[in-house]
Structure formats: C-alpha cells, structure tokens
Write a structure and sequence with these properties.
Four copies of one chain form a homotetramer. By secondary structure, chain A is mainly alpha-helical. Chain A is about 55% helix and about 5% strand. Chain A has helices at about 25-30, 35-45, 50-60, 70-80, 85-95, 105-120, 125-140, 155-165, 170-185, 195-205, 215-235; strands spanning about 5-10, 10-15, 15-20, 25, 250. Chain A has a three-stranded antiparallel beta sheet with strand order 2-3-4. The radius of gyration of chain A is 21 Å and the shape is globular. The interface of B and D includes residues 74 and 242 of B.
Amino acid sequence: MTDLTWQTAITKVEPNKISVHGYRIDEMMGKLSFSQAIYLILKGELPTEKVGKMIDAMLVSSIDHGVSPPSTLAAITAASTGSAMNGALACGILAINKFHGGAVEGCMNVLKKIAAVKNERSLSIEKSVESVVNDFRNKKKRVPGFGHRLHSKDPRSIKLFKLAHEYEIAGEYVDIAKTIEVYLEKTSNRSLPINVDGALATVLCELDFQPSLGNVFFIMARIPGLVAHVVEEQTRQKPMRKIHPTAYEYDGKSQRTIT
Amino acid sequence: MTDLTWQTAITKVEPNKISVHGYRIDEMMGKLSFSQAIYLILKGELPTEKVGKMIDAMLVSSIDHGVSPPSTLAAITAASTGSAMNGALACGILAINKFHGGAVEGCMNVLKKIAAVKNERSLSIEKSVESVVNDFRNKKKRVPGFGHRLHSKDPRSIKLFKLAHEYEIAGEYVDIAKTIEVYLEKTSNRSLPINVDGALATVLCELDFQPSLGNVFFIMARIPGLVAHVVEEQTRQKPMRKIHPTAYEYDGKSQRTIT
Amino acid sequence: MTDLTWQTAITKVEPNKISVHGYRIDEMMGKLSFSQAIYLILKGELPTEKVGKMIDAMLVSSIDHGVSPPSTLAAITAASTGSAMNGALACGILAINKFHGGAVEGCMNVLKKIAAVKNERSLSIEKSVESVVNDFRNKKKRVPGFGHRLHSKDPRSIKLFKLAHEYEIAGEYVDIAKTIEVYLEKTSNRSLPINVDGALATVLCELDFQPSLGNVFFIMARIPGLVAHVVEEQTRQKPMRKIHPTAYEYDGKSQRTIT
Amino acid sequence: MTDLTWQTAITKVEPNKISVHGYRIDEMMGKLSFSQAIYLILKGELPTEKVGKMIDAMLVSSIDHGVSPPSTLAAITAASTGSAMNGALACGILAINKFHGGAVEGCMNVLKKIAAVKNERSLSIEKSVESVVNDFRNKKKRVPGFGHRLHSKDPRSIKLFKLAHEYEIAGEYVDIAKTIEVYLEKTSNRSLPINVDGALATVLCELDFQPSLGNVFFIMARIPGLVAHVVEEQTRQKPMRKIHPTAYEYDGKSQRTIT
C-alpha cells in the first residue's frame, strides 16, 4: 500500500490532552471567549483583548435578520417537513451564497484592490477609489458591500465602524470603505450606504483575514439565528404549512434596553 | 387566496432597526459577547455574566477535536473534490448525528429522568441513579455521555464541572452526573468517565435548556473547527487525495500557555 | 496500526472492468434500462422485464409535482441565492422527510403489519385491516399513504395499481391497500383515497423491498424534477426574489398526448 | 403588498391531473421509461426511442464506481454516524464537484469551443483540436474528460461511443472527441484516453444539452449507487468505524453475464 500518511497543524489530540495551535483546550476554557477561540483556530495565534471584542461584535452583528433571508426560509422549509435539526441547518447554510451573505468576500477583494492600486501607483485614497469603482461601473457591475434594500443607514455598519475606532483597529481599510461610500453617494442617483457585509469586510481586512474566509464569518454568526428559527418552526407551526416570504408579523418581546 | 400570514417572535426587522427579543442589535454589539447573544436568541432573555462565561467555556470546549471525527472527515472529503466552503460545512454538520456529537441530548434526557424519579419517588440521588442506570443495563443499552475511547479523564469534562462550580451554576444535575460516574465505576469492569457530551449535557440541564437543543451546542461549537480543517485541506493538500482516517501526524505549533 | 480492512459487496472495480453485483457495467449499458440497473444495485439481482417496467412507472409517477412541494421550494430558494446545482439539490433532498415524501416507509410498515396480523391470527383481510386501522385511530394517528389535500382520485395511484395488475405484480398487498381505502371511506367523514406514497408503498411491498428503502424511491424519482426547477430558477428569475408558495401560474406547454 | 405572482413552465398541477410539459403523468407512466421522462422534464420534448435508450446507457454507465469515490466516502461517513438516508445522500452529492464528477461540464465546453473554432475559422477538425488543446497546454491546464488513474481503456467510454453509433446519435462531437484522444496520445508522454466524464460530455453535446447540465447527469446516475452504499454501511458495519479509503475488499457476487 502506498503511504497515505498526512499532516495537520490545527489540533493535537493525545490521551487526556487536546491542544489547539499549541494551547490546551482545558486551559482555553474559562480564559478565552468563544470569539477569541474562533480567532485562534482560524489565525493560529491568540487575539488581543480588543481584537477578541471586535470578533464578538462582528458575530453579534450578523446573528440574525428575521425570517425573510433565504437561509432562514430554506432552513424552516426543511424543518416544516420534519427534518432533523442538522438537516435544516445544512439547508440554511447551503442558501448562503453569492447573492445572500456572499458580498463579504467580494467587498474584501475590492478593498484590497484599492489598497494595492494606492500603493503601487502612489495615488491618493480618493483617486484609487475612483479608479477601481469606475472599473466596476464600466463593467456594469455593482460594488459588493454597498446598498441595502431596507436599511438606508445600516445600524450594524455604523456600530461596527464605531467599535473599530474604539478598539483601535480602524486603519487604512476603514478610510477606503468610507471614501467609497462618499464617492458612491456623490456619483449615484440612489443611496448606496455601506451595508453589514461591507462593514464586516472592512474590519476583516483590518484584522488581516483572507478574503476567502469572509463569508465564513457570516455563516458562523448566523447558525444560532437559524437554530432559533428552526426551533420556532418546530414548536409554533404546523408541519407542511405554506411559508409566505413577506406576510409575517412580529409578536415577540417589546423594545427594551440592556441594563 | 387563503391568508398565509404568520407570526414570529425572534427578531423584528424595521428600516434601520433590528431587534432580537426586543434588544437592538447595535446596542447588543460591544455590550454582549457572541456567547451571550447566542443565549439570548435561544432563550429569549439575557444571561447573567457568569452564565455568559459558562456558555463561552462550553463552546470553546467543543471547538475542535482534530481530524479524526467523522464530521471533520466528511467536510474535508467534500473540500477535496473542490466543494465551496458552505457545501463542505453542510457535509460536516450532516455527519453530526446520534453516534457523533449526538449524546448530549440523550444524556440530558437521562439526567432529567433521574431528577424526576428522585422527586416523584422521594428517593436519594444514589437510589435514583441506580434505578435509571439499571434500566439501561437491562435493555443492554449504554448510558449516553459516559466513556470515551481515547480520554480516560476527559480534560474538557473536568474543566466544565470546575467552571460550573466557579460560576455558581452547579446544582442537582452536577450531583446526579457525578453519582452516575461513581456508580458506573463501581459496577462496570471498564472505566466510563463522564465525557464532553455528558458534561455539556449536565451544564445545559443546570441552565434549563431543552434536551432537543443539546446537540445544537455541539454543532455551533464545531463550525469554526470545521472551517479551519476545510481551509487546511484547500491550502495544504492536493485535490482528490485518499484521506486516511488514522495515519495523520500533527506538525503544528508546540505546546505553549496562555499568558 | 490496527487492521482497517473492510468488505463491500456492491461494485467491484478493476482496471478496465467495473462490475455491479457481478455484471459488467459495459454489458449492462445498452441491455438494461436505468430502472433495471437501479433494481439490480438495490436488490442484487436483475429484475424481470415486467418488474423493470414497474420500476420505470414508479419513478415516472414521482418525477415532479410542480413548484409547491417544500423540496422544490427549498431547492429554488438556495438556487435564488446563487447556489451551485449540487447545493440546491442537497437542499431539496434535505426537505424530503416524514411530512413530505416520507409516508412511503410508514405505509409499507402498515401494510406489512396487516399482512402479519392476517397470517398470525388467521383473520380475513377485512378483519386484519379493521384491527390495525382502529389501532391508529385509537392513538389519534393518521394511516400514512391515504388522503391528499388536492387530489381526490390521485391519477398516479390509479395508474400504478392498473400497471401492477398488467405486469402481474399485484398480490396480497394490493388487496390490503384497497381494503384499507374502502374501510376508511366507510368509516371516515372525509375521503381518504390512497395517495401516490401509498401506491408506491404497495408496489414496493409486492416487490419485496425493505420499508427503510421506501422514501429512497421518492428521492430518486424527484431529483430530475428538482434539477428542472433549479434550472428554471437560474434562467427565468432574478436572484434573491421573494418566492411566494402559492401565487404561481403555469405558462408552459398546453395539454398534449403521447403519440 | 407587492405582487409576488410568478410563472413556471415545467409541471401543471390541477385536481386529479398532473402534467409535465403538457403530458399527463398518468399517461407517461407505462409508456415512458424513467430515462425518457428525465429527458422530457429537462428538455421539454419527448426523446425518440433511440435517444431514450442513449439516456438509459448514460445513466447506467455512472450508477456506481465502488467505495473509493469521495462522494461514496462522504455518504458512508455520514451514515456511519447515524445519519438519516437523505442526509447521507446530501453529503454524497455535496462531494460531487469540480475534481470528482465535475469534468463533464468542462469537457462539454471544450468540445463546443472546438466546434466553434472549426466553423468560425473554417479549419479542419484536426487543426481546431490542435489549436484549442494547445491553449490548454500553454496555460498548464489539463483537458477535462481525458485520462483516468485506473482505467487505461475505460469500458464505459468505449461502450458509450459504440452505442452512440448504434443509436445514430454520433456526429461531429464524437469526431472531435476521438480527434482529441488521438492528438493527446501523439503529443503526451502518458496515455490520456477519454474517460467516462468525457464520453458523457460528448454524447450530451450530440443531444444538444447545455454544458451547465453536464454534471447533473453524473449526479442523477450516482444517487442509486450512493443509496446502495449507505444501506450497506447501515447493515454491515459498526457505527463510527474508521473508514479506510483504500483497504477494502470486494466480497460480493462473482462474475456473471446477462442472459
């Protein structure tokens, strides 16, 4: 038989000892938040406390967006037929693609392109943004991460940028993203504010994540929301109901504040 | 057309305002950890700070267990054929079932049954455990949540119980779980220590979660680990390799401690 | 390393020779229909020509049922977000469960139970049916495979029974199924005709398939239908549209006949 | 509410009448094979009898390839953890991608490109093949559909071409495919015979299917094979076994012939 031995560099499992990138998992427990552990397993190193809090804020920002996203509808459609929880969650994840949750990666690529243009051609941020955004327009393509059909000022984006400053993470990519927003505002006839995909993309660039990991943050964040919707479907609804995509009403808790 | 209007009680989405169980998501960001937000979306109320930390520890405990679990093997098998990330993650989730990650729910049911027997029949914990465990034995079934093929003293279980005490969450269910462990030790000819599924089950019972949500914690926790393995497959391995389930070697970071 | 060698009895692959249950695949091609090959791979033996035709009719009967089934809605919801074809098909399959397409197995178990009662207690078919159906009623459960919200006389069931007679496959299970239908008609205040799940179940019992394979025939049959709907979504619809579950219109080919 | 009415052109469902592209499903049953119905639902018209037989041969050719393909390994890995059948099949489908079963579409695009070059530039088949194949080589890319790590003369490809002639389907695309094979033989230092993906691609081009449907034929064909392997896993193997990707032995039926 040919040698099929292979190598892995993530987690070492020994009897009574499990280590992620060298850190014992029982030491991580109680010392690291889940968000810090997520950063560790994806990047190989521990985040600073501020970066850990940034990850928390990013994941919280995308934990749910109600019943209308296709990922939620796909998950509850499966649940309505009697699916096990994991089947319904798989359905939900399979409905997170280019047109839903998928703009994070695209926006990261745009931001990195603009940074590259700026550095390679020694241009100002404004000129670099203009050049790359005009390329999109000439190809009749939208700049991913900008514009939302419902939110004209996405509260999640605003807060993500605010926290990026507070946690001292904001840098060149935040400047680029804001410059894009201004340029689109000036040159479009409709408002195209940075949406949550775009804000996540900006922060992920600041944290030096690969664009290919962009959508993964959306998926990781949304799983608990999908779980909640599947449970609601299983407990409040009749099997095999017709699920209308817009005729729903919120009948949950009233507005309240964290004290 | 019949009225297809339906109700949802999780998240209210209005223009420029998104609220989860009544809390504005932009207020949650920066104030709540992801783990606290997970508790909120699943239970409808905010956790105490200590409960939030317990959730963190639970999710960290199960973030990864190396390349050998079937969920990891299923995910990297799909990745090896060129799957998109979401397809590979869906594969991983679909391989989390009764025999892998699925003992949390089963163990929660056992713990709740023992608590019920104890209260209904006014028995001691020891007698209640004996009664329910013997039922399993008479049916030639294993008590879910106990025994591990590799770990004789699972460091994750030990730490979860330690933290449950530290965070003042430990109560009757911890007593029951420990009593089961002692009884199995005394009456089995092989060691059946409480494993991480059993420890998660115990803490989830203390936190008053439904048993049907048990496996969901394992799934939520494991997603980031699956992501890391899929990225490793995509970046370190050749497509369509033969994936040997045991002939792997760890070549990552050496042992280190959190400072 | 422990010996991980395992055995498989389905397909033997040698250089330039592939054999399914002993038959060379290149010999099968051109001699066997796909339906005959499906029977072979699942049962291990070749079907008679008539049984092969019965399989064809069964698979044709369930190839599609328009856009309203949840499996179709789940598949096109994923497609609408930009999913790859295999992801959308996986979504569709994950929405085939107990309450949708899942009655085949349940009905097979009922038919087999009635046959067992009949033989063990030496009862008439009528008395055996009465006994088992009344058990369901006492438990407030519906008999799976009977009743349809749209079709009062399901044309697929009628034709499956007709062909079962024509192909000389009809036997005891067809008698049992028809007796159930009569008994339900007599004792219910609403019509509960045998539906396509029930008719498939009956024929599968006659062909001596395991009940656990029941739903698989529905899944195999429905895949091409799901493919057609995903292609239609990709080519006729805009991404991320709101998919209304009942407000659709058929604008395809007019009624015609096979000549 | 905005109008969400939408159109579909595949299947019309009326009470007691279901029609696929205008043909009543109960008329199709008994008159059409499953393969003919698959052609109808995907193309909108009935195939000739010969084309129907060609579809049968194509689907039979890819019904299974033993336990080693990643789609099979992914499906049985899920099954081994206790997955429901539909979850295991979804896993299998999710492992059919670019590097496994995914060459059909790529090869169809190559064949169509060569045909276009030939017609647009009025070149011979040989010159057209040379031009397009050399483009691939200059980009250091393999021509999809040629070469197999096990089969030097793939019996499935040979038979598909033979039947394409017998059923009078062979035309320009068969010529192109054979010319590619000859050119690769002449100019490569290793044998790159047309594999089953390439042969399917050739026939699908002759039948005027869209390249985007190429992989779908592989998926539709492989489902019954996956079902058989999942059943075998469930019935012959212990849960959570370590699944070795090469250390398996065939212990099924001996060689036999269709009589």
